[in-house]
């Protein structure tokens, strides 16, 4: 069925942007290499040795070069008791870079993005990849963009506590169910993962946050709509908490062949993962199709916290979703 293909294409789009960290990483390596090449020949042997050492201790060696830019993954150990697992049963994880100075009490959380799966087959595929298992994920992440610690590149948030929530449930952290037969077991535990991560972060200072922002891109941007008010419910009353979606405002509209491609895709996802019970009840009770509340256009009016929405009018994925024929 063609609609599914467009979502797979979306995932590969994401593979590119998520590898951006690795690309910059190797750029840095060549930058170091380049500088050293400019030295005189007598120091060339030393340079070669240190270059070999640098490579041998990667990522440790690189980490000291780009201090604070590479952030280590924390696996949520207590997730076991909460049954909060990635699709394949691995522990969920996040990366935390501590705030400092005037940002020491402020928290920025960012949901990782990367498409979705909507049936057993596609979720089994994800479970064997970095989109569905922390086993296959990079354990070190390069923090850039809104997560950067560089004041000139990221003036507003560079010194906040910055957290990247790794995405491994395949449904924008929205579901809670389990698929099991004699040969296959798939955990659909996005809600539990979300809660397990928050409970891990609260004692690390999130419980005393001055300002807090829940953000995310793409599938992660969609996750912000589904968790914004739940996020603020964990924070003290005097925390200034807001939410922000980047390229996550997926529309419930017909495509050019007049099919409800997106609606059908997300309906399958919601049924598979048991997501409907977590949608805002005031929204679901107001709609003929309750699962439509998965879409920001219906969910947003019921969100209480202040929202900032960033979305291109010509969002590449949204345009493709409206032109499914281009994938035939
Ligand atoms: C921050 O980014 C600017 C602009 O790219 C760069 O010139 C500067 O060296 C960076 N600072 C640090 C500490 O990495
Ligand atoms: C278990 O489910 C998978 C995926 O739906 C299927 O391919 C497999 O045949 C099932 N195994 C059994 C023993 O039913
Ligand atoms: C927030 O979400 C978690 C995970 O689904 C749930 O257990 C909890 O009850 C929710 N809290 C509120 C106040 O809705
Ligand atoms: C919020 O209230 C707590 C307890 O009264 C206090 O310790 C904390 O400093 C307050 N935080 C802010 C941001 O006002
Ligand atoms: C639903 O609406 C009622 C009445 O406005 C409100 O009190 C309640 O908090 C809302 N529930 C949710 C989950 O937003």
TrEMBL record:
Keywords: Cell wall, Cell wall biogenesis/degradation, Hydrolase, Membrane, Secreted, Transmembrane, Transmembrane helix. Coiled coil: none annotated. GO terms for biological process: cell wall organization. It comes from the Eukaryota. It is found in: Secreted, Cell wall. GO terms for molecular function: hydrolase activity. Pfam families: PAE. Its EC number is 3.1.1.-. The chain crosses the membrane at residues 43-63. InterPro entries: PAE/NOTUM. It is an enzyme of class 3 (hydrolase). Belongs to the pectinacetylesterase family. PANTHER family: NOTUM-RELATED, PECTIN ACETYLESTERASE 9. Hydrolyzes acetyl esters in homogalacturonan regions of pectin. In type I primary cell wall, galacturonic acid residues of pectin can be acetylated at the O-2 and O-3 positions. Decreasing the degree of acetylation of pectin gels in vitro alters their physical properties. This is Pectin acetylesterase. It comes from Papaver somniferum (Opium poppy). The lineage of its organism: Eukaryota, Viridiplantae, Streptophyta, Embryophyta, Tracheophyta.
């Amino acid at each position: 069925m063609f609609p599914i293909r467009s979502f797979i294409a979306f995932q590969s789009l994401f593979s590119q942007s998520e590898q951006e960290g690795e690309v910059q990483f190797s750029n840095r390596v060549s930058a170091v290499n380049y500088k050293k090449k400019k030295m005189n020949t007598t120091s060339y042997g030393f340079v070669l040795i240190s270059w070999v050492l640098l490579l041998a201790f990667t990522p440790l060696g690189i980490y000291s070069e780009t201090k604070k830019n590479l952030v280590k993954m924390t696996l949520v150990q207590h997730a076991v008791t909460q049954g909060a697992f990635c699709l394949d049963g691995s522990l969920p994880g996040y990366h935390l870079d501590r705030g400092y100075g005037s940002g020491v009490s402020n928290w920025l959380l960012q949901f990782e993005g990367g498409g979705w799966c909507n049936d057993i087959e596609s979720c089994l595929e994800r479970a064997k990849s970095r989109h569905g298992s922390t086993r296959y994920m990079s354990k070190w992440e390069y923090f850039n963009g809104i997560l950067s610690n560089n004041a000139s590149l990221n003036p507003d948030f560079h010194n906040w506590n910055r957290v990247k929530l790794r995405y491994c449930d395949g449904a924008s952290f929205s579901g809670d169910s389990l698929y099991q037969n004699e040969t296959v077991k798939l955990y659909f535990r996005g809600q539990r993962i979300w809660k397990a991560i928050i409970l891990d972060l609260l004692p690390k200072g999130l419980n005393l946050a001055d300002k807090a922002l829940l953000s995310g891109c793409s599938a992660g941007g969609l996750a912000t709509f589904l968790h914004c008010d739940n996020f603020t419910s964990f924070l003290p009353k005097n925390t200034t908490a807001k939410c922000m979606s980047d390229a996550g405002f997926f529309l419930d509209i017909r495509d050019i062949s007049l099919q409800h491609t997106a609606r059908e895709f997300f309906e399958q996802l919601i049924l598979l993962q048991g997501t409907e019970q977590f949608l805002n009840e005031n929204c679901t009770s107001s709609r003929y199709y309750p699962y439509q509340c998965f879409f920001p256009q219906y969910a947003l009016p019921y969100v209480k916290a202040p929202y900032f929405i960033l979305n291109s009018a010509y969002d590449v994925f949204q345009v493709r979703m409206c032109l499914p024929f281009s994938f035939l």
